[in-house]
Amino acid sequence: MTEQPLTGGRLTPGVVRIGDTVRRPAGPHSPFVAALLQWLAERGFDGAPRHLGSDDQGRDVLSYLVGDVPARFRTWADAQVRAAAALLRDFHDATFGSRLAEPYPVVCHHDPGPNNVVFRAGVPVAFIDFDFAAPGDPLEDVAYLAWTWCVVVGPRRPEGAGGGGVDLARARVHRQPSPQLHGCSRRRRRRAAMTSRSGGTTTPAAAMRRRASRRVRRMPTSPIAHITY
């Protein structure tokens, strides 16, 4: 069957569609991602592809999720941001307390931006590209979501000055109380943002999380978008 290159996910080159499946180059992350997707499937979480094994080229085989994946950042409606936050919360709830999350509360996606989300009829319905998934504090993902979904792309310099810029939309995140996610201490949040799941080693994913957290902290406090998580 014909291989159709796919766009959207920003981290893994060589992703193609064959029929109703997606083929992704395998890597060190593959066993963890396979276990995670299997766990999510067993718990009825529909916001992620299913892991179907490997093909004769050693690539990971996933189910294809029908929908659209945006190629670039853009302005999102409040309803879309709320839907993305609800999807993220469902993902965290599905992994809370699992062996995959140890020693942290949940498994984090660590890149839940709009470029890694499948939309149907303009509504976020599923995450893709779990290469950076790892145990962590849920607020790591919440901070990253608040940054990447509340971005307004447009020129900031005077016309003719060249280049472009990014205006960070002002966001206020309202975290709903949950018996599953209660008790995440500040110390654990800091440690989770600084270390990988292997224990103590700073990784590109950890660096990305630190940058996202700093950007969110610099946001003005007057809200434009309200995210309920």
Automatic annotation (TrEMBL):
Matching Pfam families: APH (PF01636)
InterPro entries for the chain: Aminoglycoside_PTrfase (IPR002575), Kinase-like_dom_sf (IPR011009)
Annotated Aminoglycoside phosphotransferase domain residues: 68-170
Gene3D superfamilies on file: 3.90.1200.10
Biased composition (Basic residues): 208-218
Chain spans, region Disordered: 174-229
Domain of life: Bacteria
Protein name: Aminoglycoside phosphotransferase domain-containing protein
